[in-house]
Amino acid sequence: MRPIERGSVPQVYARYEDAKQDLVNRLGLYCSYCERRIATLLAVEHIQPKALPQYAHLELVWENFLLGCVNCNSAKGDQDVILADVLLPDRDNTFAAYRYDSLGTVEVVTGPSESLAEATRELTALNRLTHSDWNDQVMFSALERVSQRVQAWEQAREALVDFQAGRTTARAIAREAAGCGFFSIWMAAFEGIPEVRREIIAAFPGTAADCFDALTAPVSPRPPNGLPHSAKS
User: Fold this and answer.
1) Which among 180, 155, 151 is positioned nearest to 168, based on CA atoms?
2) Nearest CA to 28 among 18, 39, 41?
3) Could you tell me the pLDDT band of residue 142, with boundaries at 50, 70 and 90?
4) Which residues contact 66 (CB under 8 A, 6 or more apart)?
5) Are 129 and 146 in contact (CB under 8 A)?
6) Mean pLDDT of the chain
7) What are phi and psi of 99, to 5 degrees?
8) What is the pLDDT of residue 15?
9) Which residues pair with 100 in a beta bridge?
10) Is the peptide bond before 228 cis (omega within 30 degrees of 0)?
């Protein structure tokens, strides 16, 4: 899961939907949780749900916004999100918490934040193909989400072969990755090749550069960024 930095609030919003373009400008057309590139139907996602009375005051608050696809957004629904109990891409180095395999599965990395990473994975149903709140169309989208991860792995592996053979450049690969989505898969495919990984980090808008060291290894815990319950991983 790509760690992000959305930056300071650009403006005051009359409706939360009005924040979508600013979020896209800052973070790109990617779901903040599953990393899919979504050209349409990408929604402003409330980290702590606006429908719960205790979070109603956060409906228009920039720091409570992410971008979500139909699967991640509907899986979260109106569940109470306790910030101390989950890992979030705007507060933690979520890249260090998960491993993406070539079969399209998102695995939790063993470590001190393992239970928090599992909670986030379940909250957003990253590995699930069914959910009580999903209709047939959304369940098809979930199946497609897994298929897209597999396709991204194949695309990244082909790019790796081309890079090793001198047929492409790090910058060209980064542009290809940004067009594909699935930041973490491309980073995993080029593990041990900082030249390419630095370009990938730069190509995805809003990636938190301070979550990676000079050789692009993850820095964990993430340096605190002033948000509540940041730097847990």
Assistant:
1) 155
2) 39
3) confident
4) 4, 6, 23, 27, 32, 33, 45, 47, 88, 89, 90
5) yes
6) 95
7) -125, 135
8) 97
9) 106
10) no
